[in-house]
Design goal:
Elements (H helix, E strand, L loop, with lengths): L10 H9 L4 H6 L5 H17 L2 H13 L1 H7 L2 H81 L1
Helix pairs in contact: 4-6
Length: 158
Amino acid sequence: MVEQFTYDEHPRVEERKKQGVPTVTKTVAALADTPVSRFNRKVGLTITTSVGTMWCAYAFAVLALVSLPAALVSGSPIIIIGWIAQTFLQLVLLPVIIVGQNIQAAASDARAAATYADAGAILDEARKIQAHLGAQDAAIGALLDKTLALEKAIAAAK
């Protein structure tokens, strides 16, 4: 009989089970864990979550509009353009960009979760294929054994 194939699971399968779905939160948690880095992450996250809202963008727009009359009264195109670029755009676009990045991070986490689930399904399908191939190997082995027995019987009859 032909030697049967032995399936050995790839070591990454077990690693994958332990790691779970890769997310932004897990990636941040895997960063250096010192008191200073924890403090910096907490301060950065607090500022980002408070500044990264559309309400903050509206508040910054109102704040920027406070100085608009002074820029217009000056009549200087340089002052007016400076107000637009340095005051209004920078103040308002900062929170809007952070909101967009937060949406993209959430979408990235959703894609990672979907990819993780897809990979799990593919692994399951691969196991089923291995079982199917094992059954076929057994059937082919039985046929080969019968063929060899017939060949021996024919050779003995001659």
